[in-house]
């Protein structure tokens, strides 16, 4: 990969990192500000209210996916990426200054809700824009490796959020964190978004987007629902292959800290440290798995994830509930995240490889956002619902069942590794480091 490829990956990843820092600090700091926006009562009920607003952000992601996916296909990936980080910055500022229940009653929760709606719009477009950008910006035989940096940057954003939480936990009292300290990460996120806005204004557009002339999508239909409907099979495939992966990912990242403290009984500081250490290893695994997919294909990794998640979810979550201390909890969390890596490392490029250039951003954005609204964004709320109902183990089977559905899709879909992004569905020879030229097969 050349210098220009690395530059594009760096700029795209840096923005994605800040986007997901803002998105995830809401979840990681929810245990501290849940009581600030709702009246006194059952702690689990307050967390459910906060998780409900978290889920609302996911339901705005299809709208953001449609709007910003359209922008990405019509105006370019650079324009869409700049717009997403602007929306995210505004939402972070709103949460940072939102009044508490004691000051404005449910008015503070209303501000929180508006901020999450803006975040949903932003992230709904960010995923597809960055997935498309990173995939198109890379060399043909390094697409899996390059696109894996999307989850490296996503995870880095969460690691920074958890790292900041650890620092605040050790430098501030619990009373101060619950009172006003939880606002600090949102201020940091707003400042980071301003820096990324500057970086993205000078980023380079991808050559695939600029040079593709005949991709089967008419100029006036680029980024439209009509064009997406012509590729509805691929759109439904994105929803199905995302289902199991997004539930597993949010279970072992976003929800893990709450699960360890609220169900396993670990102190908040220990639960946060477990998540922090596990995510560092998880981030390092992404490029390795992405590069492996460039050699062996995408399907073997997806199938490995789905089989592992289907068979191991129930025992892992059951043992985590009885982990009792840092090291057992960390070991089990790492095992779960190693399995999830089979999905996270390559799902971005797999989805981008399904669609022609003129509909790629929208084709990835809208179906993926729908799947996340239905399964990823609700994972935490569903988990807490099962817990509140006294049948927490039911959630374990729910996660395993979603993975089983995706397994069927992975087993029946075609390999996408060798397609020509400039003209999806047409074979193109590619020179690989591990062997002679191969003729690619049409996309699924």
UniProtKB/TrEMBL annotation:
<dbReference type="InterPro" id="IPR051084">
    <property type="entry name" value="H+-coupled_symporters"/>
</dbReference>
<dbReference type="GO" id="GO:0015293">
    <property type="term" value="F:symporter activity"/>
</dbReference>
<dbReference type="InterPro" id="IPR020846">
    <property type="entry name" value="MFS_dom"/>
</dbReference>
<dbReference type="InterPro" id="IPR011701">
    <property type="entry name" value="MFS"/>
</dbReference>
<feature type="transmembrane region" description="Helical">
    <location>
        <begin position="358"/>
        <end position="375"/>
    </location>
</feature>
<feature type="transmembrane region" description="Helical">
    <location>
        <begin position="272"/>
        <end position="289"/>
    </location>
</feature>
<keyword id="KW-0812">Transmembrane</keyword>
<comment type="similarity">
    <text>Belongs to the major facilitator superfamily. Metabolite:H+ Symporter (MHS) family (TC 2.A.1.6) family.</text>
</comment>
<comment type="function">
    <text>May be a proton symporter involved in the uptake of osmolytes such as proline and glycine betaine.</text>
</comment>
<keyword id="KW-1133">Transmembrane helix</keyword>
<feature type="transmembrane region" description="Helical">
    <location>
        <begin position="180"/>
        <end position="199"/>
    </location>
</feature>
<feature type="transmembrane region" description="Helical">
    <location>
        <begin position="395"/>
        <end position="413"/>
    </location>
</feature>
<keyword id="KW-0769">Symport</keyword>
<dbReference type="InterPro" id="IPR036259">
    <property type="entry name" value="MFS_trans_sf"/>
</dbReference>
<feature type="domain" description="Major facilitator superfamily (MFS) profile">
    <location>
        <begin position="8"/>
        <end position="418"/>
    </location>
</feature>
<feature type="transmembrane region" description="Helical">
    <location>
        <begin position="50"/>
        <end position="68"/>
    </location>
</feature>
<feature type="transmembrane region" description="Helical">
    <location>
        <begin position="235"/>
        <end position="252"/>
    </location>
</feature>
<dbReference type="InterPro" id="IPR005829">
    <property type="entry name" value="Sugar_transporter_CS"/>
</dbReference>
<dbReference type="GO" id="GO:0005886">
    <property type="term" value="C:plasma membrane"/>
</dbReference>
<keyword id="KW-0472">Membrane</keyword>
<keyword id="KW-1003">Cell membrane</keyword>
<keyword id="KW-0813">Transport</keyword>
<protein>
    <recommendedName>
        <fullName>Putative proline/betaine transporter</fullName>
    </recommendedName>
</protein>
<feature type="transmembrane region" description="Helical">
    <location>
        <begin position="80"/>
        <end position="102"/>
    </location>
</feature>
<feature type="transmembrane region" description="Helical">
    <location>
        <begin position="301"/>
        <end position="320"/>
    </location>
</feature>
<dbReference type="Pfam" id="PF07690">
    <property type="entry name" value="MFS_1"/>
</dbReference>
<feature type="transmembrane region" description="Helical">
    <location>
        <begin position="326"/>
        <end position="346"/>
    </location>
</feature>
<feature type="transmembrane region" description="Helical">
    <location>
        <begin position="20"/>
        <end position="38"/>
    </location>
</feature>
